[in-house]
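Example record

One chain of 228 residues, shown exactly as stored in the release files.
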Amino acid sequence: MKVTYWSDYACPYCYIGETRLKNAIAATGLEGEVEIEMKAFELNPDAPYEVVGPTLDRFATKYGLSKEAAAERIEGISKMGRDEGIDFNYATTLNTNMLDAHRLTKLAHELGNTQFEELCYEAYFVKNEVMADHDVLRRLAAEADLPQADVERVLASDEYETAVRADEREAYAMGVHAVPFFVVNNKYAISGCYPTDEMARVLEKAHGEALVEGAAQGATCGAGGCTF
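Predicted structure tokens for this chain:
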């Protein structure tokens, strides 16, 4: 069984949703039977490569909230992450461009490595690192045992950018404009960060090849922002 999902490292619901997916796989006893493929979906392809301000201010401005209201919503999302066992620190994230992280993810996938994507999620939301910083990406790649020469080649070029854009075009062609978005066995869709038990239900139905109509709907992040 295969689960394909579109995600961005800057999306809190993507990290939480990916964690819930893995918990759902464990809950249904399907470990070893499910292949997970992450595809790229940049929430803001034009994001700067330098940190331009704190997340609280950016969040308040984007959603037209007071800093107090923004802090409350940010904490609510962080609590969702902590409830899944993640030391989630959304308020202190350092938002920058994610293209190079996605390009290196493509390299990792080509080498059969899925550890790199987990390290990227953790680096951004737990350790609050600058994901556009090539030194940060080099260290994460080394932790994932990616070949240094390949990493340097990718970072010094635009390699895999075409693959990243192809992922995004594929999502748009399906009408996807917010992430996470999961597709199970090319048949069953889960749009958004859905509860673990509901994700488990879809996995069980897919595993049994039962027909499911429509798509589940949960919290997502899109170009216009995140739902709450």
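Notes: Residues 2-226 form a domain with the Glutaredoxin fold (CATH 3.40.30.10).
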